[in-house]
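Private note to self, pasted from the team thread so I don't lose it. Backbone tokens:
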């Protein structure tokens, strides 16, 4: 079996060789000063990527879902009300998690393909005269539909409503690949995962926590043990962990952030936009469209491609994997079969993206979709050739 082909799913993403090597390290005593020296650069690096002026960075051996659970259980109590828009599979899963924890979720049903509805959120908060809503849940980048939401706009809506709720943001498929302003947007908890923009294996939930969210821990009564921020912060003060940490992943995280900062975060974001735009040009050449309802909603990390009537997006994904050894994402939930997803985040270049587009075209031809081989590739090539090349990743 060949592992040479790149993956074009929205995570886990391709791992740079130097990141793999950074994770490959001998056993280290996690209660020793050596671990503290390794741990601090990772935490401070995350702070810079999130653009946090204050608050705490917390790393938990988990994935993004564990980060969501930690955010909820550390700051809320049974019966508390949270406000959330449901417009894709991942916003739905966060709602489901809250409901399973006995929270009252006030759901704003939103068509898939749209982003978080700012005016409706503001109206719901203005209607909450008693301040029963304790948190607003926002999915920055809805991976199922390739839609980004305006987190700064949500904060402005909250401020316009004069509401004191906390703002929790799922940034799992955006942080490290798209601009994120923890302090500037007034975020109280941001959740990321190691396996996306940070280009690591899965296994770390990465959270930024504001002073307001830390204060909420004093009255929160949802049960938590493994995810308890108090235990984490008490151990951090001594340079350690409350339990055995994934030392290799933490070492890899520090190195991955070195790579991102060597490229320059603004260059990283520009590269992702450039790669995404090439994909979108290819989709147009195929006679198709992104599932996202309008261009201002287009994600720069994943595009859900709306397939023609009578075609099955899942069949394309299955054929790409079985015949060509290339991974694309299937449609999830309401869009199952209606789309296939092209992930374009993490360690990717123009040449890698072109190989993915070429593979997608071969699959379309094999399935009889009537797409002309080379049409999308040529459109992406024209765009990449005619624009300023993205800065290369730091040498590994």
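Design output:
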């Amino acid at each position: 079996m060949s592992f040479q082909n790149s993956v074009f799913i929205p995570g886990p993403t391709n791992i740079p060789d130097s990141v793999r090597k950074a994770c490959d390290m001998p056993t280290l005593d996690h209660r020793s000063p050596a671990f503290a020296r390794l741990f601090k650069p990772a935490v401070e690096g995350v702070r810079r990527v999130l653009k946090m002026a204050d608050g705490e960075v917390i790393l938990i051996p988990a994935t993004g879902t564990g980060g969501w659970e930690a955010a909820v259980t550390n700051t809320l109590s049974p019966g508390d009300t949270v406000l959330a828009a449901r417009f894709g599979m991942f916003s739905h899963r966060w709602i489901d998690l809250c409901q399973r924890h006995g929270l009252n979720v006030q759901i704003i049903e939103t068509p898939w393909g749209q982003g978080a509805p700012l005016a409706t959120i503001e109206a719901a908060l203005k209607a909450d005269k008693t301040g029963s809503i304790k948190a607003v849940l926002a999915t920055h980048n809805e991976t199922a539909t390739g839609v980004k939401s305006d987190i700064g706009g949500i904060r402005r809506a909250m401020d316009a409503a004069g509401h004191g709720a906390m703002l929790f943001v799922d940034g799992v498929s955006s942080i490290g690949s798209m601009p994120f302003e923890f302090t500037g947007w007034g975020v109280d908890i941001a959740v990321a995962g190691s396996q996306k923009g940070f280009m690591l294996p899965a296994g770390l939930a990465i959270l930024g926590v504001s002073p307001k969210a830390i204060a909420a821990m004093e009255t929160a009564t949802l049960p938590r043990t493994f995810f308890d921020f108090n235990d984490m912060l008490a151990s951090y003060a001594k340079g350690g962990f409350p339990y055995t940490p994934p030392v290799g992943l933490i070492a890899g995280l520090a190195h991955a952030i070195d790579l991102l900062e060597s490229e320059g975060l603004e260059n990283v974001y520009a590269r992702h936009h450039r790669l995404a735009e090439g994909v979108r040009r290819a989709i147009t050449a195929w006679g198709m469209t992104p599932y996202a309802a309008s261009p201002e909603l287009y994600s720069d990390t994943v595009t859900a491609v709306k397939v023609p009537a009578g075609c099955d997006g899942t069949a394309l994904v299955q054929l790409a994997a079985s015949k060509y050894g290339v991974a694309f994402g299937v449609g999830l939930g309401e869009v199952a079969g209606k789309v296939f997803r092209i992930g374009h985040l993490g360690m990717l270049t123009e040449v890698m993206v072109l190989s993915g587009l070429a593979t997608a075209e071969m699959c379309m031809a094999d399935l009889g979709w009537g797409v002309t081989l080379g049409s999308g590739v040529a459109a992406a090539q024209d765009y990449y050739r005619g624009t300023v090349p993205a800065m290369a990743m730091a040498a590994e």
